[in-house]
Amino acid sequence: xxxIGVLALQGDVREHLIALAAAxxxxxxxxxxxxxxEVDALVIPGGxxxxxxxxxxxxxxxxxxxxxxxxxxxxxxxxxxxxxxxxKILDGRDDQxxxxxxxxxxxxxxxxxxxxxxxxxxxxxxxxGTPVNGVFIRAPWVESVGAGVEVLAExxxxxxxxSRIVAVRQGHLLAxxxxxxxxxxxxxxxxxxxxxxxxxx
Length: 201
Ligand code: GLN
Description:
By secondary structure, the chain is an alpha/beta fold. The protein has helices at 13-22, 33-36, 49-58, 62-70, 80-85, 187-200, and strands at residues 3-7, 26-30, 41-44, 75-78, 86-90, 102-107, 117-122, 132-137, 141-145, 150-156, 163-170, 173-176. The strands form 3 sheets. It has a 7-stranded mixed sheet with strand order 2-1-3-4-12-11-10.
C-alpha cells in the first residue's frame, strides 16, 4: 500500500486525505521537507495558488518538491495544484513561482466571472463507466501542452466550437482543473493510486 502525502500548506487538504484513504492509500499531511521525504507520492490540493506558492517558499518545501518531481515522484494536482505543476502560467501574480514539471501553460481563473463555479460531466480517458462529475471553482484551464503531455479530458468552450483542456498527464504527473475530492466519486484518486503503484514496481 503506497503512502501518499497531501501538501498541507493551504487548501482542501482534508477532502483529499479522505479520498485517498477511500482509494486504498495511506494518506498523511505534508508540511515540511522531512515529511515530504517519507511519502511515496503527493497530492497538491485546490486552494489559492499564489498563497500556496508563498507558503511553500516560506516553509522551505519548494526546492525539495522540485527535486522529488525531477526524481520521478508521482504528483497529482487539483485546480491550484494543477497551477503548481505547470511549467508556465498566465494571469499569475508577477512573482508567482510554481513547482513545475508538466510541459504546459495554464491560465489562472480562466473560466471567468459568469462561470466562477460550475459542474460538468467529464469524459475522462482511461476511466471506465459513467462520466466523472467535474466540479470547477475559479478553475484554471490548460492553454497549451507540449508533445509529451497526454490530454485526459476536455470541456466544450462556452463561446465557440473549441474545447478547453481540463485534465492532463505527463508520465508520473497528473493534473485536473476540477475537484474530484469534493464529489465522493473516488475513481480519479484510484487512477492516481494505480500510477503510484506502477511507479513503485
Ligand atoms: N483560482 C485559484 C488559484 O489561482 C484556484 C482555485 C481552486 O483551487 N479551487 O489558485
